[in-house]
Design brief:
Elements lengths: L14 H6 L9 E4 L5 H7 L5 E5 L2 H7 L4 E4 L14 E7 L7 H6 L1 E12 L20 H5 L4 E10 L4 E9 L10 H5 L3
Parallel strand pairs: 1-2, 1-4, 2-3, 4-5
Antiparallel strand pairs: 5-7, 6-7
Organism: Variovorax boronicumulans
Keywords: Methyltransferase, Transferase
GO molecular function, one term: methyltransferase activity
């Protein structure tokens, strides 16, 4: 009998996502990037949010389709399937593909929320992922969210299971703020 890897995204929703889910407006649309079998889609659908998920695994999107629209797409090799679309919330956990980070942040609608949690530098000392390609560097998630208002941010070690993570809850302003964007200030311009 062939060993089959379990579908990712079948467990309980992330504590971070649950903790900050109150930031979403009522009935806000939710995009779950690298949704796996849809644990976060299920969480938000159960609270009345229309949900969309994307994952490259057809088996995962088949399972996630029970909770909302699930799109099978390889966002690392193919086009971003949500070009020009925005969502009331964008959720990402345990996933990092730097070339898509700008698309992910751009998908947050005015007044919308980004909830992001993934592995960080240091994780190579306790397990996988261990390649730098899949580990955020110090401050990297903050820099990616420079045009959003950060509500909460953590960068550190979590013991159960042992892992290093960065996680953020950030909101896009409904209207552009006066003055130079934070990105320009961070670059010293």
């Amino acid at each position: 009998m062939k060993d089959v890897a379990p579908l990712h995204g079948t467990g309980a929703p992330s504590e971070w996502i649950v903790r900050w889910s109150h930031l979403l407006a009522a009935n806000a649309t939710v995009l779950d990037v690298a949704c796996g079998a849809g644990r976060h889609m299920q969480w938000f659908a159960g609270r009345g949010h229309p949900v969309t998920g994307v994952d490259r695994s057809p088996e995962a999107t088949e399972a996630a389709g029970a909770f909302g629209q699930a799109i099978t797409a390889d966002i690392e090799s193919g086009p971003w399937p949500f070009a020009g679309q925005t969502f009331g919330a964008v959720v990402v956990t345990n996933y990092l593909w730097r070339p898509r980070m700008a698309d992910i942040v751009a998908a947050v609608a005015p007044g919308g929320v980004l909830l992001y949690e993934t592995f960080a530098a240091g994780n190579e000392t306790v397990g996988k992922p261990s390649r730098a390609d899949f580990l955020l560097q110090p401050g990297e998630l903050l820099a990616a969210c420079a045009d959003l208002r950060v509500v909460a941010y953590e960068d550190g070690f979590l013991p159960e299971p042992a892992r290093f993570v960065q996680r953020i809850a950030a909101i896009r302003a409904r209207e552009p703020l006066a003055g130079p964007p934070l990105r320009a200030l961070l670059k010293g311009n």
